[in-house]
Structures are given as structure tokens and as C-alpha cells.
Design a protein that fits this description.
About 40% of the residues are buried. The protein is globular. The chain contains five helices and twelve strands. With about 230 residues, it is α/β, with parallel strands linked by helices. It starts with 9 loop residues before the first helix and ends with a strand. It has a domain at about 75-230: Putative cyclase (Glucose Oxidase, domain 1), CATH 3.50.30. Helix 4 (about 150-160) runs parallel beside helix 5.
């Protein structure tokens, strides 16, 4: 399926957006944004429209973007689920810049405390969960309802461990049917910053240098972000 501008969907074309981990270069773990891409069912659809076009004789190419704040790779602010929560523009930059650990999750349905216990999570740690979502869910523009999510019990476990930042490889840390609101509320109330919509299919478990920066939108409940990893250089 092509989008309305005639560009072929990256998910349909099979063009890789990720770098080779073995080279030591930065690895792009964010997903491309394009017209018709998958989005949360009750969120605005994504549309990119060329308003000015060099091919039509205009002086420049200028595009209009229509998308929800929680499109593709994005971050959630406490304000997303907490009435008095901070906006995303108030996020301290060190929440998403520094060392991060990628943890592989084997359970096919949810992240549970029993699987997390063996990883010796530390306070202030940045943790990115690599689940079956990365290989399965990003291959279609249709919303996948049964994605792997963080259970409410696992969210409580992470909150008690006082981790700094949590990332997951589909559109929500909470499930579509189960634990959606509760998981968000537990983590955000505990001061955990949330990254959603990562693609970790080209990344092995381990420790990396990490950068993820959301758009600086005043008072935002969320914002699209670019996320990258690099193996440590030591």
C-alpha cells in the first residue's frame, strides 16, 4: 500500500531504518512517520501533505503534518494520565540521555515481575524492553491488539525499584485490553519517564549509550521523539 503522496510505506518496502550494531555506529531505534502508518485506535490518524512543491513551480517544498502527540516513537508526560502532572517540556534531559540497558523479554503476552527479578534492576536506571513486538508488530500498518505490554504488577515492581526511564517496543507501555490505564498511572506517579513505539529488532540485549529527545511542546501530554543507541566505546 502506498500513502497519499505516492511514497511507498517503509514497512511495506522492507527498507531498513536501522544501522548495523557491529559497526559501533549509532542505531536508530525510532520508527519512521508517514501517512497511513499505524496509530492507537482512538488517536488521530497520520497525514503528511505537501502544501508547496518544487515540482509544481513553488519556491520550496513545504509539508503540513497532521498527527497525534502519541504517534510512532514518542514519549508520555505525567500529564498524559495525571491531572496535575508535569508537561513533557519539563522533562530533565538526563532522563533520556546517558547509559541505558536493553532487556530481552521472553513472555509472549506481558512483562511480569517474575521475569524482571533476575535482571537486578537499579534505581535511576534507564531500561528498554525488547519484546516480540519488535519483530512482529512493526510489519503492518494495522494496529496489533495483542502486543506485549507491561503488566500493572510489573509496573509496580519497576516503580519500587525507582528506575528512571522505561521504554517499550510498541505504542503503549500498558495493554490494549488489560492494565492500560493502571500501568501508566503507576509508572508516571512514581516519576518514571515513558518511551513508547521503539523498534529494537536490530538490537541485542546489553548496555548502550542512549539518546531520546521528544519535541519541546509546551505543556505537552506527549510528543514524537527520535531515539538512538550506540554500543559503549570502552
Amino acid at each position: 500500500m502506498n500513502n497519499s503522496n505516492g511514497w511507498k510505506s517503509p514497512l511495506q518496502s522492507g527498507i531498513s531504518q536501522l544501522s548495523d550494531e557491529s559497526s559501533g555506529a549509532w542505531i536508530d531505534i525510532s520508527v519512521p512517520i508517514y501517512t497511513g502508518m499505524v496509530h492507537w485506535p482512538d488517536n488521530p490518524p497520520v497525514r503528511i501533505e505537501r502544501m508547496q512543491d518544487l515540482s509544481r513551480g513553488d519556491a520550496a517544498n513545504v509539508s503540513k503534518l497532521e498527527l497525534g502527540a502519541h504517534t510512532g516513537t514518542h514519549m508520555d508526560a505525567p500529564r498524559h494520565f495525571l491531572k496535575e502532572g508535569a508537561g513533557l517540556d519539563e522533562m530533565p534531559l538526563d532522563a533520556t540521555i546517558g547509559q541505558a540497558r536493553v532487556i530481552n523479554i521472553d513472555h509472549p503476552q506481558a512483562i511480569l515481575p517474575a521475569e524482571l527479578e533476575r535482571h537486578n534492576l537499579q534505581a535511576r536506571e534507564r531500561v528498554l524492553f525488547r519484546t516480540h513486538n519488535s519483530e512482529r508488530c512493526w510489519k503492518t500498518d494495522q494496529f496489533v491488539e495483542d502486543f506485549v505490554y507491561i503488566s500493572a504488577a510489573a509496573a509496580q515492581f519497576l516503580a519500587e525499584k525507582q528506575v528512571r526511564t522505561v521504554g517499550i517496543d510498541y505504542l503503549s507501555v500498558g495493554g490494549y485490553v488489560y492494565d492500560g490505564v493502571e500501568t501508566h498511572q503507576i509508572l508516571l506517579s512514581a516519576g518514571v519517564w515513558l518511551i513508547e513505539g521503539l523498534n529494537l529488532s536490530a538490537v541485542k540485549p546489553g548496555t548502550y549509550e542512549f539518546i531520546c529527545l521528544p519535541l519541546r511542546i509546551l505543556g505537552a501530554d506527549g510528543a514524537p521523539a527520535r531515539a538512538i543507541l550506540r554500543p559503549p566505546r570502552y
